[in-house]
Structures are given as structure tokens and as C-alpha cells.
Structure to design on (455 residues):
């Protein structure tokens, strides 16, 4: 069986890599270069707003090196989840950079774009036919939720990428895409077993993250064959160990041994990881279990309001000792004042106190929520129907909280130290995920609109 050598440029297109690492990796032999460009890790903002995550010049630099090396070697370049969220605006933003690079360097190649954004009527049709089912946990899904959402995308598997490659695409820019599919599509086309390709794709998805110590974002190389794969970083400063590769197999998985993809599941419970040098690891023994029904995950975001925040420091030991009662009484006073002055009722807005130094990161899940230091950081997080309302609410909160009394003090007191003037910071629109479902497909490529362009 033919071996397939895959190169991951980095873990995310926006983070960069060392140019010499990619050059070395391609010169050592490669069948394609891939890179993931996004995920839902940053929350629903990018999907809902349609805005990409930059920096644009940094992404252009990374794409320039990838295209230059890929075109010179005559191998495909594959990008997944373009622009961070993989919707139509994110895809077009990335394609515009590709076109710009082609013009500047007089490069000529066949470009494939795979759009994963869904029409709302498509989803409603699938819902009415019982083809869309919830994962756990999942919010309620009905016509109103779908109509009111800003944007939906389907997370493609290997098949749309394979279709583009079979039609001769030298550069593939995909919308929302499984990270693993970026690296498994071409190897499976070339006869590599699903189990090998999917496990290798899992290790490649984050670039150099499977090294023993990732000193900086960089490239990773894997050679696949019929029995397994060998992973070795092209940068001689980095090395892989069995432990580091196993650790990345577990990364971001709900189940330590089972990775679910469109079309089936990878089972690594019997995988073996063997050091074959001080820098390379051989992986064998994984299995692939085909799914009874082919599904793709659907992601969607809806606008829920606008946010303003206030950042404050609190250093008074008397106030810190009764922080919960202080914040509770402050909430009561603010809600009354907001209803009287701004004519807003509870339910038309929301505000939260995030206490850093106690449970600011985990909230109610924090197992040790006692304050042990001499000061805390307080973020007052306000969400309302408009940016103006959010800012006005935050102003009421910041001023009221500044002078809100505690029993031990008499007269006017100042509780908060504001690091910024003005203390109210407008953050902008707020989105939330509105779907956590899978869509059963008869045709794995059906929802994905594919176009080709000779540059």
C-alpha cells in the first residue's frame, strides 16, 4: 500500500508557524499540507456576527507560505473552518485573501470553495422530516428558534473535501469542517484505512501540540500506511513521546477512547504508542466503527442582546468578609433604581457579578470558593436589549456599588477602585448557541455548496 505523508502547518491558521519548519517538512516529502482555521472554542460570537478572527496580515502571511510550498511541490493545500466559524462571510473573507495572494505572486491554480452555511428552510425541512435530532444537552429547537437565529453551519466530514480533490482542486478552502476530516480526506482517497487516517488526523489537528513541550505554534508531520502511522515534528527543536501523543488523542474528547466523526467512530482503546526514536512515535491498533446513519453536527447562533462591563478592584477587608450579602443587597437596590429611572423590568436585562479571587472562572462549579487574599477583582457584566440600555445599566451599577453601604461604616464610602475612566466599557453584541443537534443525511455532500475557480 502507498504511504501518505501529511503536513499540518499549525494548530490554527491565525496562530502562525515557523517558515523553515514548513519548508523542511515539504522538502522531506509530502502529499498535502493542511490547516484548521477555526472552531467553536471562542464561543458563538464569530458565528453569530459573521466576523472572522484575524489578524488578517498574519493569516495572509501563513497562507502565502503554505501556497508557495504547496504549489511548488505540486501538492494540495486544504484549509478547514475558514475564518474561525466557517460561515459564508468567513469563507469569502479567506477566499479574498487567497485571490489577493494569487494576483500578487502570479500563481495559477484551481481553487475549490466549500460553503457550509445552511439555509433556514433547509433546516426546517429536515426538522419536519425527523432528520434532525438532539445531542445532550440540547436547547429546544423549533421553527421560531430557526427563523430568529443569525446563522447556521453544518460541520462537514471527509466527503466534500474528497469531491473537491477528485475534481482536481489544488487549493481547498472549506467552511465549517471537522478538524480530523482536513487530514483524513486525501489519505482515505489513497487507500489508507479509516482507522489510521482518522487517528492521524486527530493528532495532526493542532499542529505541534502533540509534542512533549510545544515551545511555540509550529508544524507537524505524519506518515501513514496500512498498519498505522508515524508522527515526528519537522522542527528539530521539538520531539514527540508516547505520552505526548497519547495526551493529544485524549484532548477535547468526552470519551478518552472514542472519537465520534460523521460516518463513524474511532476506537483507540487498543491503540499502541511506541517510541521509534527520541523524536518519533509509531501508532498502531486503532479501529474504526462505521455509523448506522451518516450525520453532521449543526451549529447555530442567535443574538440575545448587547453587553457593557465594569471592572473594579475591592480591597476593603470588611466588605470582602461579607461579599455575598453586599452583592445581594446591591442587586436589590439596583433593580429598584433601574425600574424607577430607566423603566426597565427584570427580564428585560440581566447582570452578573464575576468575582476573581474566589470563583470568577468556574462560578458555582468552583469547589473552593473562599476568598483567601486581601483583594478581589470584580467584573460587573450587563446584557440588555440595546447597547445604550446596557451602558446605562452598567453606569447605574458602577455608581451605586461604589457607595453602597455596609453596617460597619458610617457616612459616604467608596468600595470600588476603577482602573479605567470611564468605568463603563461597551463590548457589543452578545450571541448564544441555539442548537446542539445532528442532521441525518442520505448524501454526505448535499448541504455543502461547492464552487471552483481557476486563478
Amino acid at each position: 500500500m502507498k504511504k501518505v505523508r501529511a503536513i499540518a502547518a499549525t494548530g490554527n491558521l491565525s496562530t502562525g508557524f515557523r517558515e523553515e519548519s514548513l519548508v523542511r517538512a515539504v522538502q522531506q516529502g509530502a502529499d498535502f499540507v493542511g490547516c484548521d482555521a477555526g472552531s467553536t472554542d471562542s464561543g458563538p460570537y464569530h458565528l453569530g456576527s459573521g466576523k472572522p478572527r484575524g489578524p488578517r496580515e498574519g493569516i495572509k502571511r501563513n497562507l502565502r507560505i503554505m501556497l508557495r510550498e504547496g504549489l511548488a511541490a505540486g501538492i494540495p493545500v486544504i484549509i478547514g473552518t475558514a475564518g474561525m466559524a466557517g460561515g459564508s462571510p468567513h469563507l469569502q473573507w479567506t477566499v479574498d485573501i487567497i485571490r489577493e495572494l494569487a494576483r500578487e505572486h502570479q500563481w495559477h491554480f484551481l481553487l475549490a470553495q466549500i460553503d457550509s452555511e445552511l439555509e433556514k428552510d433547509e433546516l426546517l425541512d429536515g426538522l419536519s422530516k425527523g432528520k434532525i435530532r438532539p445531542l445532550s444537552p440540547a436547547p429546544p429547537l423549533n421553527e421560531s428558534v430557526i427563523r430568529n437565529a443569525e446563522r447556521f453551519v453544518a460541520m462537514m466530514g471527509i466527503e466534500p473535501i474528497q469531491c473537491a480533490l477528485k475534481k482536481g482542486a489544488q487549493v481547498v478552502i472549506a467552511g465549517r469542517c471537522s478538524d480530523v476530516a482536513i487530514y483524513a480526506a486525501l489519505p482515505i482517497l489513497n487507500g489508507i484505512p479509516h482507522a489510521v487516517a482518522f487517528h492521524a488526523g486527530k493528532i495532526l489537528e493542532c499542529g505541534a501540540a502533540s509534542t512533549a513541550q510545544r515551545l511555540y505554534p509550529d508544524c507537524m508531520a505524519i506518515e501513514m500506511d496500512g498498519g498505522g502511522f508515524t508522527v515526528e515534528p519537522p522542527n528539530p527543536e521539538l520531539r514527540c513521546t508516547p505520552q505526548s501523543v497519547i495526551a493529544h488523542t485524549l484532548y477535547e474528547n468526552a470519551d478518552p477512547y472514542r472519537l465520534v466523526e460523521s460516518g463513524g467512530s474511532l476506537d483507540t482503546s487498543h491503540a499502541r504508542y511506541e517510541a521509534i526514536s527520541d523524536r518519533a512515535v509509531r501508532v498502531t491498533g486503532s479501529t474504526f466503527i462505521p455509523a448506522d446513519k451518516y450525520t453532521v453536527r449543526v451549529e447555530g447562533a442567535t443574538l440575545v442582546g448587547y453587553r457593557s462591563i465594569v471592572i473594579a478592584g475591592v480591597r476593603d477587608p470588611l466588605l470582602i468578609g461579607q461579599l455575598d450579602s453586599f452583592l445581594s443587597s446591591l442587586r436589590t437596590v439596583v433593580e429598584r433604581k433601574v425600574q424607577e429611572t430607566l423603566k426597565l423590568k427584570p427580564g428585560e436585562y440581566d447582570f452578573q457579578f464575576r468575582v476573581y479571587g474566589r470563583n470568577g472562572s468556574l462560578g458555582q462549579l468552583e469547589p473552593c470558593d473562599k476568598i483567601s487574599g486581601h483583594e478581589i477583582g470584580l467584573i460587573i457584566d450587563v446584557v440588555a436589549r440595546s447597547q445604550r440600555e446596557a451602558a446605562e445599566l452598567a453606569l447605574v451599577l458602577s455608581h451605586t456599588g461604589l457607595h453602597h453601604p455596609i453596617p460597619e461604616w458610617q457616612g459616604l464610602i467608596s468600595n470600588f477602585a476603577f482602573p479605567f475612566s470611564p468605568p463603563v466599557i461597551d463590548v457589543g453584541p452578545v450571541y448564544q448557541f441555539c442548537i446542539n443537534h445532528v442532521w441525518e443525511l442520505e448524501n454526505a455532500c448535499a448541504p455543502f455548496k461547492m464552487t471552483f475557480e481557476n486563478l
